[in-house]
Write a structure and sequence with these properties.
Number of helices of chain A: 9
Structural class of chain B: mainly alpha
Family (chain B): Belongs to the binding-protein-dependent transport system permease family.
Shape of chain A: elongated
CATH topology of chain A: MetI-like fold
Structural class of chain A: mainly alpha
Order of helices and strands of chain A: HHHHHHHHH
CATH superfamily of chain B: MetI-like
Largest sheet of chain A: none
Radius of gyration of chain B: 21 Å
Helix content of chain B: over 70%
Largest interface: A-B, 50 and 44 residues
CATH architecture of chain A: Orthogonal Bundle
Distance between the termini of chain A: 45 Å
Subcellular location (chain B): Cell membrane; Membrane
Number of strands of chain B: 0
Oligomer: heterodimer
Domain ABC transmembrane type-1 (chain B): 27-210
Largest sheet of chain B: none
Protein name (chain B): ABC transporter permease
Distance between the termini of chain B: 46 Å
Number of helices of chain B: 11
CATH superfamily of chain A: MetI-like
Strand content of chain B: under 5%
Order of helices and strands of chain B: HHHHHHHHHHH
CATH architecture of chain B: Orthogonal Bundle
InterPro entries (chain B): ABC_transp_perm/SBD, MetI-like, MetI-like_sf
CATH class of chain B: Mainly Alpha
CATH class of chain A: Mainly Alpha
Shape of chain B: elongated
Radius of gyration of chain A: 22 Å
CATH topology of chain B: MetI-like fold
Chain lengths: 228, 240
């Protein structure tokens, strides 16, 4: 990742420079695209694993403790250590980054989904039962929709922390915007490059969070007009 | 040799432990910078959290701080701070780590004071205590289990994050992993696994150690209900 010195008398080391962004838009955009796809894929995979896990925890009460404990342990293992455990087997590539990030996102989504399912009022559940819904019908038509706010909270938190976590992928050279930040650090502490990477990370987290919030509003029309 | 065999070989080489830059050196660096960061975090977060909890204001601030630090990548903070007046080196790393220690410390200090039974607080006031006395003699002692819980979460998080200090040449056990990757997986696989094992082992030991400390400082009658409280405090951080 190279950068061109501008032809001013004193190139200096500014905190931000459009010159840098213009000259390196290809690299930066590629990193941004990489980061975004990694994050989106990771959160989708994590949701596909975590929501069924949460449903299992909800249906079979004795399993709630173990499931939350297992995801909690995964969460305690430092991210770099997870990379170290997985990379020797999956190699240096997207698969490793994805697995690490997914394992981290699990806890937040599982915990929030379980909380969301537990918030379904007992009367509602009984009413659904009285209307003749079976276990699956009740889950799909009543409980999961009512748990949506909880699930979405989990997804949003998972997305924001995933955006931050992907940068650790620099250890195997697949860190998305982390590559930009790290390269800036190695380019003699080039501030503009580091700041560009950082700002894009925070912006990406913000945008994805807002998108999910919007999706949440669309999916839960009955909550509109209520506070919170 | 598969990576696990390499791991055993690497761990069995005494030079890997005692050489300059070996495991013992790195462990010392890791623990000392984590300890400094957690202490710094406590100095900032506890007074602030206790005060916010005492006045009952600033719940929004607590949530905002934890959300902000959640979205700023560790790597970014680690690389940005050396560019400021802190300069390149240990102080910048310690400050960066302390930033990540603040949210759990702050949230738990705040919750710890807020959860004190209002009747207790009013009784203290009725006895003629001033605001400062209520805080020091009533709310602070009752908040100690929460402070301990926050301390544990912060310590584990800092120890985990300190592994990333290697990216800014800050030392610590992360160096072992990064150098292992530098050797390529075929050669350094054992070293990578060893580094991962050491980092994870340290994090888990810290977790267990401070879970024990947390139990010690929690008065016996409160221990039963503390499980729920711990979970609530953790939920306050993950936002559920």
């Amino acid at each position: 990742m190279s950068f061109r010195l501008s032809y001013r008398a004193d190139p200096g080391n500014p905190w931000f420079s459009w010159q840098y962004v213009r000259d390196n838009s290809d690299t930066v955009l590629a990193a941004l695209r990489d980061h975004t796809t990694l994050t989106v894929r990771a959160v989708l995979i994590a949701a596909l694993i975590a929501v069924p896990l949460a449903v299992v925890a909800y249906w079979f009460r004795p399993l709630t403790g173990p499931i939350l404990a297992l995801t909690g342990v995964l969460y305690t293992v430092p991210s770099l250590a997870l990379f170290a455990f997985i990379a020797p087997y999956l190699g240096i590539g997207v698969a490793t980054v994805l697995s690490v990030v997914v394992l981290y996102a699990l806890l937040v989504i599982v915990r929030n989904t379980v909380a969301g399912l537990n918030q379904v009022p007992a009367e509602v559940r009984e009413a659904a039962e009285g209307m003749g819904y079976g276990r699956w019908g009740r889950l799909l038509r009543v409980e999961l929709p009512l748990a949506l706010p909880g699930i979405l909270t989990g997804l949003r938190l998972a997305t924001v922390s995933t955006v931050a976590l992907v940068t650790v992928g620099v250890v195997i050279g697949r860190g998305g915007l982390g590559q930009v930040i790290f390269a800036g650090f190695q380019n003699n502490l080039y501030k503009a490059q580091i700041m560009t990477g950082t700002l894009l990370c925070v912006l990406l987290a913000l945008v994805l969070d807002l998108v999910l919030a919007g999706v949440g509003r669309l999916l839960t029309p009955w909550l509109r007009g209520r506070v919170g | 040799m598969n990576p696990v065999q390499q791991l055993v070989v690497w761990l069995n080489d005494p030079l890997n432990w005692t050489n300059p830059g070996g495991v013992l050196d790195r462990l010392g660096e890791h623990v000392s910078m984590s300890a400094a960061a957690v202490l710094l975090g406590c100095l900032v977060a506890w007074p602030l959290g206790l005060w916010l909890g005492h006045t009952g204001r600033g719940g929004g601030v607590v949530v905002l701080v934890s959300n902000l630090t959640l979205s700023v990548p560790t790597l970014a903070l680690l690389t940005i701070l050396p560019l400021t007046f802190l300069g390149f080196g240990r102080p910048a790393v310690v400050v960066a780590l302390a930033v990540f220690a603040v949210p759990p410390l702050l949230a738990n200090a705040y919750t710890g004071v807020r959860q004190v039974d209002p009747q207790t607080r009013e009784a203290a006031r009725g006895m003629g205590m001033t605001g400062a006395q209520v805080l020091r003699q009533v709310e602070l002692p009752l908040a100690v289990p929460y402070l301990a819980a926050g301390f544990r979460t912060a310590a584990v998080q800092v120890v985990a994050t300190a592994a990333l200090a290697t990216f800014v040449n800050g030392g610590g056990l992360g160096e072992i992993i990064r150098f292992g990757f530098g050797l390529s997986i075929a050669v350094g696989g054992g070293q990578i696994l060893a580094g991962g094992l050491l980092v994870a082992g340290l994090a888990v030991s810290v977790e267990l150690l401070f879970a024990y400390v947390e139990r010690l400082v929690t008065p016996r009658p409160l221990r039963r209900s503390r499980r729920g409280a711990g979970r609530r405090a953790a939920d306050a951080i993950t936002g559920s």
